[in-house]
Amino acid sequence: MDIIVSGYRWEKSKAQIEEMFRERRDYRIHYWDIEEVRKRLRKKSLACDICVIFTGSTVGYLLKEMEQIYNCCQLIVVSDTYDILPFLYKQGHDYWISQSKLESELPEAVELLGEQGTNQRYFICTGQGKRWRIPLSKIYYAEIRGRKLKIHDAEGVVVTINSSIAEFIKKVPENFQKVHASYVVNTDYLRAMDSGECVLEGGVRIPVSRERGKELNAFFQER
Q: Among 147, 7, 106, 1, which residue's Cα sits nearest to residue 66?
């Protein structure tokens, strides 16, 4: 898991953070000043799983950056001011901790958000030169084309990544069902079953193999 630490006066806590995660070889921690974060946000190349942002008593100058970061990865805000809370609740409130409780709460926050980011909330991937954090609830269906996987979301956005159907299935919850050798659908959008195909919300028709048809029909009836 890649973790970026940035913001205001994070340097004072670097040694403390290093000690907290000294035994976690699966964590890769990067320390960037805010200008580096801004540069990567402009280039849409902020590639990480969690970003830990330290703020001072004045948080306004970082709100724009935090909103952009929130759309790229999980966000932890370290601050002793409550002025930040309305923003976090508006965004969905990933995690806020006070500077005084950094040592006791940061490891738990990282562990919690790491699990949320990889399991039930988002599909995190890299494709088309960008880092994507796609809400699972918005993924419509995925299809394999050649050696590329195309992920279609409910707003018409298509993200192309290097992945197989099998790899994709491992990273998404059970409401995603493989219906064909080349297609996986989010059954939350399933509206009808027809001979050799299923119909998604909006009238999109996806082919269904004979082998998968019975399983999908049973799944459709149960839901």
A: 7
* Chain position carrying tokens 């459709």: 220
Contact between 166 and 158 under an 8 Å Cβ cutoff? The reply is: no
Least Cα distance to 130 among 71, 211, 77 occurs for 71
Q: Which two tokens stand for residue 60?
A: 């306004």
Three-state DSSP state, 25: coil
Nearest Cα neighbor of 201 from 133, 137, 122, 148 is 137
- Per-residue tens of pLDDT for the chain, all 223 residues: 889 999 888 999 999 999 999 888 888 899 999 899 888 888 767 778 888 999 876 666 777 788 777 767 788 989 887 777 776 666 555 688 888 889 989 998 888 777 665 444 678 788 887 778 788 888 999 999 988 999 998 888 899 999 999 989 988 888 899 999 999 999 889 998 888 899 998 899 999 998 888 777 776 666 5
Report DSSP letters for 181-207, one per residue. Answer: TTEEEEGGGEEEEETTEEEETTS-EEE
Phi first, then psi, for residue 60 (nearest 5°) are -55, -35
Rg for the chain, CA atoms, rounded: 20
DSSP calls for 134-166:
EEGGGEEEEEEETTEEEEEETTS-EEEES--HH
Which 3 state secondary structure label does DSSP give 90?
A: helix
